Amino acid sequence: MSTLTFPPLRVTDPAVFGRVAVLLGGSSSEREVSLDSGRNVLEALQSRGVDAFAVDGIPALAKALVAGGIDRVFNILHGHNGGGEDGIVQGLMDAFGVPYTGSGVLGSALSMDKIRTKQVWLSLGLPTPQYRKVDASNVHALAAELGLPVVVKPANEGSSVGISRVTDEAGLDEAVALAARYDGQLLMEQMVVGDELTVAILGDVALPSIRIVPKGQWYDYNAKYIAEDTQYLCPGLDGADEDEIRRIALAAFRAAGCRGWGRVDVMRDRSSGRFFLLEVNTAPGMTSHSLVPKAAGQAGINFEELVWRVLEQTLEASHA
Fold first, then answer.
1. DSSP state of 100
2. pLDDT tens for residues 242-252?
3. Is 244 an annotated catalytic residue?
């Protein structure tokens, strides 16, 4: 996996794509990030002559699909509950027979649920931190089982929304209260202390890993989207370690039923050097701070080509 090879572009004529709706915004907790990502994607497509236009959210997409005139959709909605990563919008587009970027219903819905994704990975022997489902009544007992420090988070949110890192008993109740503000189950997992890495997937290729070095202690929402002092080292590893993290990430992506493009987040334990899978993002950010464009750039693919290659995947016959 050390050498990256990409097939030539399938098409060079933007007219082949027809009218392309860039689905952005929505009503999830990640709306602002999605709007930023969508603006960048729209600009990149239009700069290469694609007849692309913005559609904000799922209700607007439904109206546009009924009206007709959409040949394919570039889905850059993030999150769930009005976002585009939980399988709902994928089902809508399947019902209308309109091709779209990214994973289908199954891969999107499964990856949005961190608990069920972990169950799949563990069943296949893929490494992920030990975890427990949480409710307010058993949080202290579960922390004792797993051993502090732990991470408490909603099972269905992204972008570090609702996450707490807990190093002592006193912080547990507050962490659960924060995570419980969001829909769905809560998850507690063993905290892996070490390097935070991510691997972007484009087609059947795992791009160079990125090691994330935030100025503060954690790579939180602020470090992801606001701060200008987070360092991104790409490739994040070298030699056999780089080959292994890319192998694991691609296996995890496929195991979750994902396709097209995405990003797999991984921790590397500082003491043992072992990798632990955290989650799959099926519609990753495409902002100025985002990681997929950084990895693609390292592999020699600029932003406009990256967006084109993602859109080309909608020319495949099926999203099954």
1. B
2. 999 999 999 99
3. no
